[in-house]
């Protein structure tokens, strides 16, 4: 975990990619009641290097979205330093598995830092 990332508190992420894999992660999370693992890594998207969110649970893995510029600005130096050693920022992730919810398949990063159900910060998709 990164203190710079933890200082941002819980973050709600709207996925833009990997929805099928994310649905499988949500089903597994519902079935076994455990949180997924989130990683913020540097990856190449459309020819540009970007910070991306990867959610993993068991054998399932989904690259779901790019980090918004506001959040990336706070954690980018840490992410690049960790990348030098082939590491990434790690945190807990929770997928909203309720199909009736307006945030169905949205992902909470750092859900354990929240005492209240409302997010301190919400991330909209970045194209």
In short:
Strand 3 and strand 4 form a beta hairpin.
List the helices and strands and how they pair.
Blueprint: H1 3-6, E1 11-13, H2 19-32, E2 36-45, E3 48-57, E4 60-66, H3 69-83, E5 89-95, E6 107-109, E7 121-123
Parallel strand pairs: 1-7
Antiparallel strand pairs: 1-6, 2-3, 2-5, 3-4, 5-6
Describe the structure.
There is one protein chain. The longest helix is centred in the middle third of the chain and has 15 residues, at 69-83. This protein has one domain. It has helices spanning 3-6, 19-32, 69-83; strands at residues 11-13, 36-45, 48-57, 60-66, 89-95, 107-109, 121-123. Residues 116-122 have low confidence and may be disordered. The protein is globular. With 127 residues, the protein is an alpha+beta fold.
Features:
single chain, 127 residues, alpha+beta, seven-stranded mixed sheet, 7 strands, 26% helix, globular
């Amino acid at each position: 975990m990164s203190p710079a990332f933890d200082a941002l508190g819980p973050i709600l992420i709207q996925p833009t990619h990997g929805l099928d894999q994310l649905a499988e992660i949500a089903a597994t999370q519902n079935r076994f009641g455990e949180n997924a693992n989130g990683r913020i890594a540097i990856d190449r998207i459309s020819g540009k290097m970007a910070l991306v969110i990867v959610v993993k649970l068991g054998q399932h893995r989904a690259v779901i979205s790019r980090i918004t510029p506001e959040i990336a600005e706070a954690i980018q130096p840490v992410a690049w330093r960790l990348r030098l050693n082939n590491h990434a920022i790690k945190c807990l992730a929770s997928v909203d598995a309720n199909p009736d919810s307006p945030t169905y398949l949205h992902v909470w990063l750092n859900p354990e830092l929240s005492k209240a159900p409302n997010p301190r910060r919400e991330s909209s998709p970045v194209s």
